[in-house]
Design goal:
Largest sheet: 2 strands, parallel
CATH topology: Rossmann fold
Distance between the termini: 18 Å
Radius of gyration: 12 Å
CATH architecture: 3-Layer(aba) Sandwich
CATH superfamily: HUPs
CATH class: Alpha Beta
Shape: globular
Number of domains: 1
Length: 80
């Protein structure tokens, strides 16, 4: 939750209205997409943990599934 709080702070400093939402869901991507829909989110920001395969090399599997199923834009942020 510390990382999410930091992300909210950064978004607010940039002029966005942001909130941290904590959910438990399986599969994880589906919970993220459903929560974004319920909250009428204008953007999903998600971290990436790079996994195998060509697409997985660019973004993690959860991020890739969120991108594929979300009804709003998705911003993937790579941990540096």
């Amino acid at each position: 939750m510390e990382t999410a709080d930091h992300g909210v702070s950064l978004a607010e400093l940039a002029g966005f209205r942001a909130q941290r939402v904590v959910i438990q869901a399986a599969p994880t991507w589906k919970g993220i997409v459903e929560t974004a829909d319920d909250q009428e989110a204008g953007l999903i920001v998600i971290g990436s943990h790079r996994h195998g395969g060509i697409w997985g090399h660019m973004v993690g599997s959860v991020a890739a599934a969120v991108i594929a199923h979300a009804h709003c834009p998705v911003l993937v942020v790579r941990h540096s």
